[in-house]
Every structure is written in structure tokens, then in C-alpha cells.
Amino acid sequence: GNSVTQMEGPVTLSEEAFLTINCTYTATGYPSLFWYVQYPGEGLQLLLKATKADDKGSNKGFEATYRKETTSFHLEKGSVQVSDSAVYFCALRYSTGNQFYFGTGTSLTVIP
Amino acid sequence: EAGVVQSPRYKIIEKKQPVAFWCNPISGHNTLYWYLQNLGQGPELLIRYENEEAVDDSQLPKDRFSAERLKGVDSTLKIQPAELGDSAVYLCASSLGAGGNYNEQFFGPGTRLTVL
After folding, report:
1. Which residue of A27, B49, B63, B91 is surrounded by the most CB atoms within 10 Å?
2. Rounded Cα gap, residues A89 and B40, in angstroms
3. Where does residue A32 rank: exposed (0-12), middle (13-18), buried (19+ CB within 10 A)?
4. Between these two residues, B1 and B114, which has the higher pLDDT value?
5. What pLDDT sits at residue A41?
6. How many CB atoms lie within 10 A of CB B77?
7. What local confidence, expressed as pLDDT, does residue A111 receive?
8. What would the mean pLDDT of A90-102 be, rounded to a whole number?
9. Is the Cβ of A104 closer than 8 Å to some Cβ of chain B?
């Protein structure tokens, strides 16, 4: 079946550190891949997306590349800020349907 | 433009009591989703509507959960009777439509339910 596996948290980093949150997926066909972010007390917000292999999604300094050969979509940021503290969810969606499959989320805390 | 609105934000009830959650999607969004989010987990789809039609309710526990979207706009999710294990955050999301290569979902803030 379809599934998304994220690295477990929580992750704690110092400000300006490099961030990687791993995400791998299991799916048939060619899903679209997403990263969502959930700030405390708020709903999920789309952070970035990629719809086909080798696409790179980017937003707010975050990047992720759709790697079909490794079935991965790792999230990276070169220099994190305190304001990046949130829970990050990797997700996939098929174009033929409209159902999203979410990972379990990775909590990130950035300390000054 | 207003985002997805949910109410209440928090609800505490005793087990066996009924409870209802309300969602108003973004204006013009035809697709509406209800998700369940347990602590430390990602959202899990309960039901998806295309306009007023429930097109995917395979994960909705129909013995106690029900949902409606009568006019294809706002929606209500109900639990009757609630059980201790229903304590979770109930998220509503909407998107412009179904199909296509990509269709962004916009999430509401959720309703946090505590069943005592």
C-alpha cells in the first residue's frame, strides 16, 4: 500500500544549524510529494511540493528534491531560525485520486 | 480571504456523550476533508466530500461517526456516543477540486477533543 515514513523526532538544533528531515515513501506509480508544517496551535500549512521525479520544491529557505530512485523527499534547510520550530509532515498524493497520505510528523525545536 | 474555519477549537466531554464539530471551507472550494490526528501522528482521512457527495468514507467508523455537507459548503462531523479513544484533534481541510496533477489542501486549526 501507500505510505510515508519520516525520521523520528524530536529534533533539537541551534540557530543557524543545518537541517535535514528524512522522508521515504512507498507507492506505485507517480505520486506528488509534499512537506507540510504545523506551528503550535495552528493547522497544517503547505511548505513545498514536487510533482514529478527530480523536481525540487523550495520555500522559505527549505528545499526537497523528489528522488524516484531512492523513493525519498528529504527536507533540508541550510540555516534554521528559532521561528522554524514546528512539526513537519511529509505527504504523498496520487493524481488519479485526491487522498493524501501523511507521515507521522517530525518535531523541530530551534534554540537560540 | 478567510481560511478554513472550524469550531469549537476545544471540546471536553464525558464518554457516551454526543459531540459535533463544524467546518466552513474556503469560499469556492468544492472538496472538503475531515481528518483525525492523534497525538504524535499525522492526519488520517476520515471522509472526503466532492460538493455535497461523500466520495471516500472508507475510514469513517460508521457505527458512531457521521458527517454531512448538505449544501456543498459547510460541514458537520458528529460522534455519538463518544469513547475515550476518540480524544484527538479533528482537522478540516478544503481544496478547489479533485483530480489534476496537484491540488493544494488548506487546513483549519482543528478541534481538540478530550473525552473523559
Report:
1. B91
2. 11
3. buried
4. B114
5. 82
6. 23
7. 97
8. 81
9. yes
Q: Which three cell numbers stand for residue B50?
A: 466532492
A72: cell is 525519498
A24, burial (CB in 10 Å: exposed 0-12, middle 13-18, buried 19+): middle
pLDDT of res. A95 = 65
Best CA proximity match to B92, nearest among A34, A49, A43: A43
The residues near B78 (Cβ < 8 Å, ≥ 6 apart) are B18, B19, B20, B21, B65, B66, B67
CA distance A40 to A103: 18
Q: Which of B4, B93, B102 sits opposite A49 (nearest CB)?
A: B102
Cα–Cα distances (Å) from A15 to A8, A71, A108, in that order, read 20, 30, 12
**A49 interfacial to chain B (CB closer than 8 Å):** yes
d(CA A20, CA A85): 14
> Mean of the per-residue pLDDT values for chain A?
92
How far, CA to CA in Å, does B19 sit from each of B22, B64, B76? 10, 11, 10
DSSP string covering B9-21, please? SEEEE-TT--EEE
